[in-house]
Protein 1
Amino acid sequence: MEIIVLPTPAEVGELAARKVAQTIARKPAAVIGLATGSSPLAIYAELGALVRGGHLDASQVRGFALDEYVGIPEGHPQSYASVIKREVVEPLGLAPGSVLVPDGRAHDLEAACVQYEAAMRDAGGVDIQILGIGANGHIGFNEPTSSFASRTRIKTLAPQTRADNARFFDNPDEVPMHCVTQGLGTIMEARELLLVAQGGRKAAAIAAAAEGPVSSMCPGSILQFHPYATVIIDEVAAGQLTLTDYYRHTYANKPSWQRF
Ligand code: F6R
């Protein structure tokens, strides 16, 4: 796992966007895995700016969202379908229909999960998966004790996750209880993983994911098994890591051909 510690959240967004932009430059029809929540917003804003400035053409990019709330009304501003449209599809100029989001309103949710996996496979798999991490170590909505072999499925959100996400809703009771999320096994099939985190509320989860034992108690620790996982965080999110000086040393001496 490559761990890059940068001074500010803005720099995290900028560097992570550069990595995604490099993936698209190398493969214009790249398939991008998309996290929602606040962590990746700076990445999407930066990619949008690159597109508007004529430095990036994302018109052939396709995408798959990590997760969606179950039962959230269609068009609700906090449904991940709405968030992806507003924060990714429109600013990056992606083609309509090029990004799929799990269907949290399907009559047969289990069948919809199977279809989602099939659609990802048919698209040739994900080239780069953007991830945030929950304060309890979840990635996607794979809460602690999720199986490392799990596939896209219905999960019950942890009380802490519902409380954390209440900030996006008018009323905390409005936060859905259930979600559909790509599984940890699904996420691990992406060719590259790119996790970003900012701020002190993520410091314990980052330390557990990057330096702790690989354990389903911290689902993010599964990244230690991925051959191409990059973690880009700010100083504050790095606050509980023990090898930060080594990560700085490695990044400062990163070979030029590996830079992005
Ligand atoms: C959402 C997702 C979650 C978030 C995590 C952090 O699609 O995959 O794992 O990344 O809950 O949320 P924020 O970024 O809002 O702190």
Protein 2
Amino acid sequence: MSRQWIADAPSNIALIKYMGKLVATADSSRNTPTNASLSLTLDHLTTRVRVREVDGPKGSLSWSPLVLPGWDVPVISQMGQARFLKHASRCLEKLESTENRALLIESANSFPSDCGLASSASSFAALTVAMAKVSGRDVDDPAIRRRLSELSREGSGSSCRSLYTPWALWKTEGAEPVSGLPKAGQLRHLALIVDEEKKTVSSSEAHVRVTSSLLFRGRVARADERLATLLDLLKRSSGENDLHAWNQAANIVWAESWDMHALFETSDPPFGYFVPGSVQALNAIRELSSEIRNELGTNHFREPMVTMDAGPNVHVILWVDPMTESFVHRLQSKLHGRIKIIDSNQFRNSDSGKRPV
Ligand code: DP6
């Protein structure tokens, strides 16, 4: 009888960014970051990987899209498939798997794959966990999980953070969970999808190119300082329900996002991800925040935390309070339905990993 193994893993958004590798190379097996990064796990945006024993040459690996009702069928280039399968084989080897049948690896995303949201983090994390199951490992054992995070990093750096939720801190080898920060239920995540095109410069390529920027000098110290301050502020905003700490944290996240995009734009040659819709979205958030600040007074408004990945879309993290619903509603009307919003709230109470109805 042929066997199968299934694993789900979430995406994540970095608040302190992984940008720059110690060995500046596009070779994905050496994803050693120049600085530590911190991310919020996006439990509603998941990838599912199913591995099945199939007929075929012993030990061979192949990929195909996983077709599941309500899930998105990913389209992966030949190069992308080769990278994915290379990672699968690396996992089997490093986890000392005894499996020797031909394996078919299938994957699907719970979110539209073409919407420009990072699926590589969730894909590589789900693949790593799936291959660990194939290798007979207990993926819930904390020591194994730590090992899987290190291994996932070799496939795609940011994926190592997707092994933990709701917060993950990645210093060097693998990520670790962080306690004492706001709980998932205290936060709401919006992804403002302004452009669904595939990016012209991949993040792996961006890691190499940013080292040519003069601003890269001092980057590690800036990121380290922000990380320490941000962790402290997030702890205060959570534990002491401190509104000012949250608002200062939002400022740090904003500055960090611009720091990364400034690295892109000052590389030699420069490159960037902003499109007109990005600026429109950022302006709408700024305008709305200023309106609400005026209505409520600065001491009563928790600012939205805004960040962008290596892409044109805008991520917003909101503190859930009586204002949140109206903030989202007013933002939607400011954007006149021209910019699609993927809202983590749409997924609440639905089965994990399923698309909203
Ligand atoms: C901008 O993890 O995609 O999203 O390690 O080469 O696969 P590789 O790069 P990747 O880089 C992600 C960079 C980022 C910031 C972040 O997630 O920290």
Protein 3
Amino acid sequence: MTRVAVVTGGTRGIGQAISCKLQQMGMAVAATYNGNDANADEFAERTGIKVFRWDVADHEACLEGVRKVEEQVGPVDVLVNNAGITQDGTLLKLAYEQWRRVIETNLGGCFNMAKAVFEGMKQRSFGRIVNIGSVNGQAGQYGQSNYAAAKSGIHGLTKALAQEGARFGITVNAVAPGYCDTDMVAAVPSDVLAKIVSRIPVGRLGRAEEIADGVSFLCTERAGFITGSTLSINGGQHMY
Ligand code: CAA
């Protein structure tokens, strides 16, 4: 049986690696993006993965987008809530708009997408939802009150939905990446990043594929007894 997976923010960075990994495992993948058409077209061309553009912060757009995916690809069995943005700044400099946008995208997006797929998963008695958290949601990070709050919220959302989904065959887990070699991390000032990397026991940034390997396992049939858990993949930067 071909499973259908939706990966939000699935055309770049960690999301791209997850989309490709799930495709390699035989799933029909729909990757969403919001903005970079040229990159998404190149990704679709190169991988054969269908791409869909909508803003995960927009509740109605998520409901409509999932309807389109279901028409064009099939009923959604697997959801990876990966889409996320950063708007870093210390509280004194952070504008309300930067707070709102990050919370509505990173945390609101997970709610919106779960809402769009949960009923169908329940009816078909199978679902895998993996929410991408962050080491910075677990440990906090200077200059990221918005991002850390959103990512920390994802961990709570995961545990609540895991309890609700369990009796319907829906598992809900989180993967908490550390600092990886993506565009998002490349935007951190190099001196600040060097200090962060110096505190990672493994001594380097993670690779997007290393996150995708963990995520993909949680999306399999074999992972049916794992729910409400958080898999930290951070080179030992934070252990709990
Ligand atoms: N703890 C304590 N003090 C710190 C600190 C820290 N971690 N980092 C900086 N400071 C101090 C500085 O030394 C500086 O002190 P002085 O005024 O005495 O010189 C003061 O705080 C101001 O710091 P900045 O000059 O850095 O302030 P800024 O306003 O120019 O920049 C910032 C603030 C934008 C948040 C910048 O520090 C930054 O980009 N930090 C990195 C944030 C980060 O790690 N983002 C992760 C993005 S990737 C991601 O999020 C993916 C993921 O999930 C892992």
